[in-house]
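Sample entry was shown:

___
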Amino acid sequence: MTLTLISKAFAQDQPIPKKYARAGENLFPPLTWSGAPEETRSFALMVEDPDAPHGTFRHCGIANIPAQWCALAESVDTAPEQAPRFYKNDFGNARYDGPQPPAGDRPHHYIFRLAALDVPKLSTPDAAGISAMWAEAKKHALAEATVTGTYQTH
């Protein structure tokens, strides 16, 4: 079975609704996945915009998602303390911050990357940021799945 990732909020390569954008309600879009390898002990997620003017911009990083989970609810960042760990995004916030491309730019692509990991927790410090967390996650990845949405500021 192959790891798959989908969102009920948007289809693959389709626009992300404004309520999930930073200028909207800035809500985390709901995600569900299936097909994780049996050896999975946790998951990590990263949301990035490779079309940003100054290089790839990371909007969200979450690690230590329990292996038994198969979804992240809308606005998962409002979950209880035992929730997975958020890492500082490129806005400087340890939470989800939605799409915010410059006005007039062509639509940007927002890639939601989920990795099934062979460890129950990553030890990367929160302050290390998403890039460091994802680099550590890649060392333990058993499988990876993506779903991509687009967003344009008019």
